[in-house]
């Protein structure tokens, strides 16, 4: 299910309910990871235009990662960072969002099923490109995209099915275990690296695979190697590889950028290493209220996603407000009030929206019942909420489409996946795992963020919190929590089970039925 910026919240609920109802149907689906019409008796003869297929794959990956559901939901909504509370009947959706928050999902969960299918389809399509004897440059980009998608299968599910291009539907795909798949992904990236371009920062350079993007993905793999290889210990050699990969990115001119929220505009900066050609409307409208300003989105916001009070409290600033001058660090953002709301910010804040909200002319907004539109810090329950419970989270900001400077539709198609501040913190973590004091390294980042005081020391707990403050809603919270051993810990409105099996999602029922080589993850 994909939502574009013209679909309103009501239609979203209807579609989700219909799809959730269908997700219990165990009929085998034809996906590129399972069945290919071009293989089997006739054999694979190669794609007629691998370069065009590569372009299509970039667009497919961008589309898969732009929504609020599927991989994004599994990576963010299932963490202590985001919650989608049910408001009356809004956002009920047969409990699909609540199951993610409470870790009560099953192998028939729609977003788990969709994520598995999408990622494995992309892996197979990349393999078809690679096996079509394209140029070295096209092969390298396809191997990077295969590695990127397989990374998420390894991270979310563990086991990875793999089908050769000459294997027809009568052959069950082989299955790589987590450690084997980790080695496969590393090998793909290392093989691709020499034939990828090396680029300097700039919006024109970061929309396709580069050596810098490959080094970033390598750093992610090496940092998580103890999880993926099942050793439970951070090997010094792996940590040194993280440092080396980040050093290579830095050597090309990538650096921490001042002006935090400007990074998420489609303009030149020194932080963006790789961005997807993805619409970001879902990152904007899923959190804003129906009545908030939405000049380029018919029907207003969707009034869904919020953060938890504990996550909001991890930032510097006043406890219960976030207006300008409330002592907040830059990354917590601000809420325009009656005196600071204007045509430029549209009355919509940046970061975390709490308290009374205003229109661009400074007029206080109301909810649909006419009461003040004042977002609360606490969410009392997963269900039975009104329209105003929960602090809203926004990083990409809407714009006025009548503004001549914003006519370029690229503003809506620029989602950052790899960012240098993340690489900087990965290097700091690797140094910490090797026994070094990283306080100064972390403070290098904080000193680039306005009104963000230095830390006196950085423990493992503090580093996890710092990663949350810097990288919220950027796809990495679940990955971080698992690596730090905190994904199964309790948080607000989640009953703790302590079941470490939840660190992996279940393999979908349809996949198990279609491929007997797959074995369900423990606990499901």
CATH topology (fold) name of one domain: Serine Threonine Protein Phosphatase 5, Tetratricopeptide repeat
Question: What percentage of the residues does DSSP assign to strands (E)?
Answer: 5-15%
Name of the CATH class of one domain: Mainly Alpha
Named at the architecture level, the CATH assignment of one domain is Alpha Horseshoe
The helix/strand series, from N terminus to C terminus, equals HHHHHHEEHHHHEHHEEEEEEHHHHH
Low-confidence stretches: 1-28, 32-41, 407-411
Mean pLDDT: 91
- How is the main sheet built? 3 strands, antiparallel
Helix share bin: 25-40%
Number of helices: 17
Subcellular location: Cell outer membrane
Protein name: RagB/SusD family nutrient uptake outer membrane protein
Keywords: Cell outer membrane, Membrane, Signal
InterPro entries: SusD-like_N, SusD_RagB_dom, TPR-like_helical_dom_sf
Molecular structure report:
Residues 89-223 form the SusD-like N-terminal domain. It comes from Zobellia amurskyensis. Residues 270-524 form the RagB/SusD domain. It is found in: Cell outer membrane. InterPro entries: SusD-like_N (IPR033985), SusD_RagB_dom (IPR012944), TPR-like_helical_dom_sf (IPR011990). This protein is mainly α and 524 residues long. It has a domain at 48-196 and 500-523: Alpha Horseshoe (Serine Threonine Protein Phosphatase 5, Tetratricopeptide repeat). 36% of the residues lie in helices and 6% in strands. It contains 17 helices and nine strands. The strands form four sheets. Strands 4-5-8 form a three-stranded antiparallel sheet, with no helix packed on it. Strands 1-2 form a two-stranded antiparallel ribbon. It has a two-stranded antiparallel ribbon with strand order 3-9. The longest helix has 21 residues, at 110-130. It is globular and about 65 Å long. The two termini are 25 Å apart. Residues 1-28, 32-41 and 407-411 have low confidence and may be disordered.
